[in-house]
Write a structure and sequence with these properties.
Helix content: 40-55%
Radius of gyration: 40 Å
Shape: globular
Number of helices: 54
Strand order of the largest sheet: 15-16-14-17-22-11-23
Largest sheet: 7 strands, parallel
Distance between the termini: 64 Å
Oligomer: single chain
Strand content: 5-15%
Structural class: alpha/beta
Amino acid sequence: MTLSNEQQQAVSSRGQNLLVAAAAGSGKTSVLVERIVQRVIDKESPVDISRMLVVTFTKAAAAEMRTRIGRALTAALAKADNRKHIERQLVLLNAAAISTIHSFCQSVVRQYFYRLDLDPAFRLGGEAEMALIRSDTLADLFAKWYESGDEGFYRLIEYYGGERDDEALAALLLKLHDFSRSHPWPEHWLRSLPAAFSVAEGSNMDDIVWSGLIREKLAFDFEQALSLYNAMLSRIDRPHQPAAYAPVLQIERQMLASVLASAGKGWLPLTEALQAISFGRLPSVKQDDVTDETKKQYQNSRDKVKKLINDARDTYFASSPGELLQHMNAMAPVVTDLVRLTLEFQASYRQAKNARNVLDFSDLEHFCLSVLLDPDGGPGDLTPSAAARELRARFAEVMIDEYQDTNGVQETILRLVSQESNRFMVGDVKQSIYRFRLAEPSLFMDKYNTYPLDDAGIDRRIDLSRNFRSEAGILHAVNFLFQQLMTRNAAEMDYGEQERLNPGLIFPPGGKSLAGPVEVWLIDRDGDETETGSDDSGNPEERAGAETGMAEMDSFEQEAWLIARRMMELKEENWDVYEREQGWRPLAWRDMVVLMRAPSGKEAVLLDVLRRSGIPAYAEENSGYFQLVEVQVMLALLSVIDNPRQDIPLAAVLRSPLVGMGTAELAEIRLTASGGMWQALTAYGETGGDELLRSRVRDFIRRLSEWRTFSRRRGVAELIWRLYGDTGYYDYVGGMPGGALRQANLRALYDRARQYENANFRGLFRFLRFLERLRDEGGDMAVAGALGEGEDVVRVMSIHKSKGLEFPVVFVADLGKQFNLRDTADSVLLHRDLGLGLHCYQPERRFSFPTLAWHGISHRLGMESKAEELRVLYVAFTRAREKLILVGSAARLAAKCAVWGQHAGGGARALPDHVIAGARTALDWLMPAIMRHADGENLRRYGGCDDYAADDSPDGSLCRWQVNVVSAAGIVAEEKLSAVRHPWLDHVARLQAVPAGPVPDWVAATLGWRYDHEAAVGKPAKLSVTEIKRRFASPQDAEQGPAAARPVTAVRPRFIRTGSRSLTAAEKGTAMHTAMQHLDISGDVGASALAAQIRSLADREILTADEAACVAAEDLAAFFATSVGRRLCQAPWVRREMAFSLLLPAERFYPDLTGRGETIFVQGVVDCLFRDESGLVLLDYKTDATDDMAGLAAKYDTQIRLYAEAVQAVLQQPVTEACLYAFQARRVVPMRLI
């Protein structure tokens, strides 16, 4: 492996804590593997691989790393002089500590279980099982709190309970519990929450953290307002602009600048500045060359600023600082109650898990932490325990992959098992995209900002910025974008020289490369019928008819059709892609991927469009299972079995293929009796008028009664499987289109029921409630897929799932989707550092409003969410190897381009912080950045932006963009054209011949092709000697037809033969052969001695008791009394049951294959072969019940000749004599060899 200078430093550096900041495609996994291998084979100070702890993010990554290490060690073994050491490492590899953090924690907990109050036989519970345990625990606690009249609980129910139930409060307690578990000391974190709401009277607003957060948020808003005024004033002196507005706008801009400056000074200065600002009336404009539309643009921008200022006043400054602090203090008791109930739930939940001896992944981390921390230490005390010191001594190095995705608990664990300077942490904070899993990228950032780049101390940072994945133009484009978008204030980090991607892979010449500009496709959902920067996609007449369709088409469906068109073009243009192992090859469907931030609900639309375009595609659909017809039918039947007095499920079952009633029949039944559908059904079964329908109703009621009885006695999984059989529904759906997938979905329901019962839950009612809760909470199950992702298909996946992968062509779609910021709008917000954000409730007024804490945490969460959204984009863009295509849509695109282009006129290299912080979609980031590039001319023209200053950065000049603006109407027209019915289909519908044109030569050659070896088709390539005898030698067998057409006689399993002394003729023959194979013939071979040997074979379980009973010692003794038997006993060289194989010309058995060079693979077993003074003697035992020795010899003549031929081929010696021995007749039958 050839390493760059930075990679070599990461591999060879020793005695330091190393943070390797590895950019996308920089080969971090290869570096990690190489470091491990070099440490293991180091001649001066080798380290056993068992003394390394390697922590990966997933099990798949751990398995891959173990494989790569094994491959590297095997390669090193061939050229190393310390072979024994390396061989030992290969043996130790399978037991090495290369695993996920949870697997490591589990090993620690199992090793030191005696330090915990824990049964060592614990097991890990599944997600569904743990959800059920939590639900049951909460239900029991709520019942207890209701009965006890807990005032704090009742207050929380009033504040946080739903309108109809208490599920909202239950969800809040679970959220608090789960969030607290990401802290090393969860109970301590919970108990610290009320302190933030106990603010001393007279406190200065600027002394609390919320003031700074709110003022930071307002500063971004005021910067945006000031930017709008700067944009207006920058163009007001131009022709056709309302110059009379300038004096008013200048005064108001000065006031906004004052407000912005006050935001950085403190709460009181900002309050005074906001109170002082006022907006006057704009003067009338008497210029004839100024249109009303132009004046409206100025007025709209000014109205936006006025609204922003008024909102700030009303939201944050309507109350005095003293009142705001009082609101905080008023919520302190509520927070205390929330913490108390959460701690009580945690204790009860722990007891419930102990009762089942089950743990979840969070338990593994915290039990491991309990083992590693000194029991006398308190929260924040990282004094290691004796166990931690043992592990520190064991591990010479602790290596952590994907370090940017660790959380506080995992960081604490790894610190406790690490020595002072033996940590190797590798990752890329720009790819930290697992905030929803409570990852803390700040852990990486703290070290990134403090570890020096030199190697003087024990802490060191090494940057791997060379990318060995992507084409240079893509890397320059990524740099160009993110140097403008990633700033410390708005996105938690700066994207500077050390963060930029440098090309490391040189694509060799030879193929038709996809390298070129990054493509941007924007759909104007409200645009005219023009397309900028690309060819027309249809004439105006065709587009005009699509206006109605445009309103019906979903915006993402428009993107899907655009993507499908572009994919077809790429395939038709015959591009090549480059593979490091095989060089250039033609572009295939599997080389393309469509990435989306949140594909749920949209992948089906995209797959449908791609399918209709003739493009094979695959998406791992994780939703939609409960909407499938076959699943809904079975769930309806289960609901009816649980309780038949449910009208909708009962009607669904009766209408379904399970019963097959029509609407008229259902109506007739429903009119039979008042009440519910069940009463009407039972009444019709007794008194219904239609005899046939009444019989069907009675049959259904009878079967339903049987199923209900069965459900009370047996498990849910057994019930479901019985229903599949009793109703035939499983076979029924198998005959429908997509039957295999439908059956897979039904099996998934059965498997879910088994998982439910394996978790020690019982009962149909609880199972249905569990599924109902799963649906209500937005959970779902994956639908069976028609294609596998390993086939030649376009893949559709989320950006998160693409992490760690690479594709030659990457489409990033749905870029106009708004960011999901729901976490910032909940009534209760959680933050790992800031704690809890609540609304203040005034129950007497039935009114609530956000507290300072809520506002501050909402702002911080929003900023962190948007910073992660930027990192998600970075991950998506860096998946591309040779072609990157961005697709998005927006309404009122021209107006948006006008806003995006406000900063195209130059200025700082990075976009203003307020632009980054105020973005609502990915397009709000990408388009302002691209419009600052020379290739953004289409966008600037579309938005009417005149200001432009060429980007002079290296990446700006080296990257190229192809920007295409497409009208939605054109895409709809194209979709309608693609859906036009082909005239040939009318001929097919009428069962008429399709008109044929001239047949090209290649079609005739293809359809007229014949297989060169057609004569060999259907003939076996492998035969046993016995099969050859049956097929080609024995007349009586030949009359029965080929052996393959006769029923196979299977050997009876031993457990069936137990207890029975009646063996078949074949089984007796097998027993005799086994005895002859294992007898000791060097001593006494008389009847009594042989009988003793047979008993010994039975005792050693070589023969069963029944087989030993059927082997007559007298028959064996009679054989050994013959001349051949005596020669065998005296022979110096004996082989018994000698297996052989050889190739014979197929024409010996199949004359029609003469001259074709085909061969047959022949296998057989020679019963006995020995050598004496006369040469090689071939002996075969027969147990046939016959006295016709001539017929016996003729029957086995071909078999013996083949045996002799095989022996001569294997031993290179001819067989001089061959014979059969018939045990039934006790006679030796000589065989001819010529």
